[in-house]
Amino acid sequence: MLIFKKVADLRQWLDAEGRKEKTVGFVPTMGALHEGHMSLVLAAKTECDLAVASIFVNPTQFNDPNDLEKYPRMPDKDIALLLHAGCDALFMPAVEEVYPPGLDLRVQLDFRQLDQVMEGVFRPGHFGGMATVVKRLLDIVQPHRLYMGQKDFQQLAIVRDMLRQLGSPIHLVMCPTARETDGLAMSSRNLRLAPEMRAAAPVIYKILQEAKASFQHEPASIVQARAIKQMESAGLKPEYFDIVDGMSLLPVVHYAESDFIVACVGAWAGAVRLIDNLVLKAPVE
Ligand code: AMP
């Protein structure tokens, strides 16, 4: 695996590979890699000629300075995992490489309600920073396929919308959420969970599964109120539990109202903020 820190070096290598007409699959990450990230790399490796990953803890998407400071960083372990997964190239830039001083690279697109609901309410500015870094990394890597996790469902919806608005030919691939054996969605932030919170957190997935069953015959308000109560009883501090249309992210009240329904949750487990989601109704292919 080649490791690049400079945009120019990565570009030079990609240009040379491009001349051999190879397809590039790209997996952007913030590091502290786990099996969820690896499943994205493996999918890229399987479906493309070259798998390129990036590790960049993007300061502009952290609305909470404490979260940025405490974000786990373990580059040596990450490199070993990527090597093992057969990743072809890793881009590990410094902040000035991604955001050259004096250049305003901010994405100023209108995502309508997509970045206003759920995470948008509780993490102001987060999606603007996320869209900016994803656009910048896509401009650098210019992949054919972009691999992202369903775990960050709202992020995916916004990136899908950004690619549409930009008229980008990049194919966005949504990879399923990798979970621990007890159901907790894998996340770099899980490393920071206190033991009692690590024990409580799997209730999120159980509640999502219960919601999937009950939403078929109960309105969203009932399902939502029960889910919030169950999370609170387990010692978590839920911020939202929303049942939404999988494309528009607008609220869905009844099961028959949409062909694609997702329940999304954001909750604090002690000092760590967790998110998860579950498709309650999948669109018929
Ligand atoms: P992050 O490093 O948290 O920015 O995540 C990088 C990519 O990995 C994003 O596309 C995430 O959605 C994806 N990802 C994170 N956790 C998981 C998971 N448990 N399963 C699948 N993909 C994940």
Question: Any overview of this molecule?
Answer:
By secondary structure, the chain is of the alpha/beta class. It folds into two domains: 2-175, HUPs (Rossmann fold, 3-Layer(aba) Sandwich), CATH 3.40.50; 188-276, Pantoate--beta-alanine Ligase, Chain: A,domain 2 (2-Layer Sandwich), CATH 3.30.1300. Helices cover 39% and strands 20% of the residues. It has helices spanning 7-18, 35-47, 65-70, 75-85, 95-98, 119-122, 126-141, 153-166, 195-200, 203-214, 220-233, and strands at 2-4, 24-29, 50-55, 89-91, 145-149, 171-175, 237-245, 261-269, 272-281. The strands form two sheets. A six-stranded parallel β-sheet has the order 1-4-3-2-5-6, sandwiched between helices. Strand 5 (145-149), helix 8 (153-166) and strand 6 (171-175) form a beta-alpha-beta unit. The longest helix is centred in the middle third of the chain and has 16 residues, at 126-141. The mean pLDDT is 97. Residues 29-30, 36-37, 39-40, 148-149, 151-152, 175, 177-178, 185-188 line the site of adenosine monophosphate.
